[in-house]
Amino acid sequence: MCIAILGPTFQDLARNVNRNISSLSLIFVGRASGYLCGSLIGGVLFDCMNHFLLLGLSLLTTAVGLYLIPFYKRAVLLIIMMSVYGASGSIVGIGGNVLILAIWGDKGAPHMQALHFSFALGAFLAPILAKLAVGTSVSAENHTEPAFQPPATNGSYEADSAPLFGLPDDMNLFWAYAFVGTYMFIVSLFPFALFFKKSSRQEKSKASAQAYRRAEYHKTLLCLLFVFFFFYVGAEVTYGSYVFSFATTHAGMEEREAAGLNSIFWGTFAACRGLAIFFAACLQPGTMIVLSNIGSLASSLFLVLFDKSPLCLWIATSVYGASMATTFPSGVSWIEQYTTISGKSAAFFVIGAALGEMAIPAVIGIVEGQYPDLPIVLYTCLGSAIFTAVIFPVLYKLATLPLDCQREVNRKSED
After folding, report:
1. Max CA-CA distance within the chain?
2. Which is more confident, 167 or 117?
3. How confident is the model at residue 404 (pLDDT cuts 50, 70, 90)?
4. Distance from first CA to last CA of the chain, Å, rounded?
5. 252: alpha, beta or left, given left = phi > 0 and alpha = psi -120 to 50?
6. Average confidence (pLDDT) over 238-257
7. Long-range residue pairs from 297-302, CB within 8 A, at least 24 positions apart, any chain
8. Tens digits of per-residue pLDDT, 388-398?
9. SS3 track for the chain
10. How far apart are CA 308 and CA 218, in angstroms?
11. Which tens digits make up the pLDDT trace of 119-168?
12. For residues 303 and 378, is the Cβ–Cβ distance under 8 A?
């Protein structure tokens, strides 16, 4: 919810700091930079601090940031807060994965799927909340004015003379962020409660009881997983971000149909993540990754071959969204079967995913501007599907060689 609330409220935030949309796009860069820094710091902190305490502090920091964002009247302060906001959010993301692996180990696949389903559910609900809270009382004139107002009209004198803090121009903006912030504050109480309840003696006994595994090619596996998630997340975000513009400009769809195509991608994505909670109880994580790779490869190839057909776009987009849903949580659960994932290790491949989310859509935007007649988005998705389908067998081969006696049974089951 915290990540997705920014998109539908972006225009209102730009108006709140007296900027146009193009001049305020740096908040996305600030949030992404904070996310990367938070991933680096969080991986170290989770290896030397109590997990529950760090997770609670990160949730609390995110909640405070959500409350403050509507009150900023300077763009610089908003960008700085977005960086802090992104850093605390990345620690929350890493913390969820690390805690599940620490508690359930290689038996936590259903719990990992449930965690990532909650992410998809929050991303689906936040725009609905923002639309109901923010979009009802703001006129169309106010919505369009900042987008077309040239930067020069803002004037440096007006920006410099603006107060640092103040009530938002539209209080519905405050209520949207306050609702999500209150939710985050309530959630932050639970890790704090677990921190005070759990004694250090229990933690030590549990830590000593957990088996520590390290694959022969541990570092190589992490590097390959870094690249795997780079392309997977990059393709996921690229298609979700560009499918609307592709459908309207290249496939000739009406805006209403294109919006429906975008919705069905994220809808099947969220629905399949919910179903994966039950599938993970009876399927190996490696099996789910292979099925996801096959679905992504087939649907992206279908998209490239029939890129002008609306019916084919609807079918292939649904399959592509469903196929992309389970790859990330399954990948985290799968690697834990062969080598123990620490906070630093989790942060490493999360950084790969974050870089893919930043770099691939940005490059596609530049290339698409140079070749507007080509379906660059679809070619990117197909190329990423081919790459992930090829790299996973390499990951599996490295993870299973050499094998000890205990892991031989798991390997035969997964084969």
Report:
1. 72
2. 117
3. low
4. 38
5. left
6. 80
7. 297/382, 297/385, 297/386, 297/389, 299/323, 300/378, 300/381, 300/382, 300/384, 300/385, 301/382, 301/385
8. 999 999 999 88
9. CCCCCCCCCHHHHHHHCCCCCHHHCHHHHHHHHHHHHHHHHHHHHHHHCCHHHHHHHHHHHHHHHHHHHHHECCHHHHHHHHHHHHHHHHHHHHHHHHHHHHHHHHHCHHHHHHHHHHHHHHHHHHHHHHHHHHCCCCCHHHHHHHHHCCHHHHCHHHHHHCCCECCCCCHHHHHHHHHHHHHHHHHHHHHHHHHHHCCHHHHHHHHHHCCCCCCCCHHHHHHHHHHHHHHHHHHHHHHHHHHHHHHHHCCCCCHHHHHHHHHHHHHHHHHHHHHHHHHCCCCCHHHHHHHHHHHHHHHHHHHHHCCCCHHHHHHHHHHHHHHHCCHHHHHHHHHHCCCCCCHHHHHHHHHHHHHHHHHHHHHHHHHHHHCCCCCHHHHHHHHHHHHHHHHHHHHHHHHCCCCCHHHHHHHHHHC
10. 45
11. 888 877 877 777 665 454 443 333 333 333 444 344 444 445 566 766 76
12. yes
Report which of 82, 117, 81 is spatially closest to residue 96, judged by C-alpha positions.
Answer: 117
Contact 25, 82 (CB under 8 A): no
For Cα atoms 79, 84, 87, give the angle at the middle one, nearest 5 degrees.
125
Q: Specify the pTM.
A: 0.73
Reading the block at residue 117, the tokens are: 């389903």
Scan for tokens 């725009």, then name that residue.
127
Token representation of residue 114: 């449930």
Task: For the chain, give the number of residues.
Answer: 415
Q: Is 49 exposed, middle or buried (0-12, 13-18, 19+ CB in 10 A)?
A: middle
Beta bridge partners of 165: 72
Q: What are phi and psi of 193, to 5 degrees?
A: -65, -40
Question: Helix 376-399 and helix 285-305: axis angle, to 10°?
Answer: 160
Q: Which residue has the tokens 């995913």?
A: 353
> Token pair for residue 121?
């559910």
Question: How far apart are the C-alpha atoms of 90 and 34, rounded to whole Å?
Answer: 8
Tally Cβ neighbours within 10 Å of residue 211: 8
Residue 312: Cβ within 10 Å count: 15
Tracing tokens 């180990």 back to the chain, one arrives at 105
